[in-house]
Design goal:
The protein is an alpha+beta fold. It contains five helices and three strands. It has helices at 55-66, 68-85, 92-100, 125-128, 130-134, and strands spanning 19-25, 32-37, 42-47.
Length: 135
């Protein structure tokens, strides 16, 4: 399934990604579309456009919303790489946009846990012998 292995989609504070476009009613007069998450839970309903809202805009809006989690993941990856790998300072507006969309706050430095070296185990024959444990 698309997006399941993307580390930038994990932990978003939004409906679980990836999102999918589902046609509920394919009739031309009563057409209705919706965006659902990967479990089939409805996120957004779309109804046929009217007035100045064209069919092309309708289809493009559905595609935009369907791909929103992937767009957010790409933006997070871009800002992360720009900051952590290249040492550049991204625009503050990008940090705000990511947080406003439910992503992590990348404006703070990433904290990496220092890994402690395991201490060697010592064997005390008097207290840990197999004979004593069997008693």
């Amino acid at each position: 399934m698309q997006g399941e292995t993307n580390i930038f989609l994990r932990g978003l504070k939004s409906t679980p990604a990836p999102w999918q476009h589902k046609i509920v009613n394919a009739g031309t007069a009563l057409r209705r579309d919706e965006i659902v998450n990967y479990e089939g839970t409805n996120i957004i309903d779309f109804h046929l456009p009217g007035g100045d809202y064209t069919t092309t805009e309708y289809k493009n809006t559905i595609a935009l919303v369907t791909n929103a989690p992937n767009l957010l993941a790409a933006l997070i990856e871009l800002v992360y790489n720009q900051k952590e790998l290249l040492g550049a300072t991204p625009e503050p507006a990008l940090y705000k946009l990511i947080v406003d969309c439910g992503g992590p706050d990348l404006s703070e430095p990433l904290v990496t846990k220092a890994t402690q070296q395991p201490k060697p185990q010592t064997w005390n024959n008097a207290t840990q012998s197999s004979e004593r444990l069997l008693k």
